[in-house]
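Try this one yourself first.
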């Protein structure tokens, strides 16, 4: 009897699992969900970012079914690959046992970029820029 090869488990880790890691998980499922299992988590849990949900929806990717979670909530999962998508998560990345590989690819934080901005269109343009940068990274993801 042939054993079905298990999909690699890939995690996108951020500070609060509200924006960048959620976008990365959404794009990853969109482009590569048939090949790999994707997850996202945060060092902390900040809830889902409404603007991240909105700009992903504009691009045709629905992340409303995803939820903000901490790494502890995914504890039983043994990841094969972890991408830290912000500097804070990279600096505070926990140890992952076994053969898990941890790589860093940093993206700007839209909520920080938009602090003090009052024009919603300007705010969303920052979210869109980061969304598109994450899309290009994830679209070209080379795992094997």
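Now uncover the answer:
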């Amino acid at each position: 009897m042939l054993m079905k090869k298990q999909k690699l488990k890939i995690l996108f880790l951020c500070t609060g699992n509200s924006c960048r890691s959620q976008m990365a998980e959404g794009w990853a499922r969109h482009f590569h969900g048939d090949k790999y299992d994707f997850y996202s988590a945060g060092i902390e849990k900040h809830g889902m970012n409404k603007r991240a949900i909105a700009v992903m929806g504009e691009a045709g990717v629905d992340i409303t079914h995803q939820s903000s979670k901490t790494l502890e909530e995914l504890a039983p999962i043994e990841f094969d690959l972890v991408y830290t998508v912000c500097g804070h998560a990279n600096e505070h990345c926990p140890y992952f046992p076994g053969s898990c590989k941890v790589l860093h690819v940093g993206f700007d934080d839209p909520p920080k970029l938009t602090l003090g901005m009052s024009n919603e269109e300007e705010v969303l343009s920052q979210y869109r820029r980061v969304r598109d940068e994450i899309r290009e990274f994830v679209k070209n993801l080379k795992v094997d």
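Discussion: Helices lie at 20-32, 50-58, 87-91, 110-113, 120-139. The CA atoms of residues 114 and 123 lie 6 Å apart.
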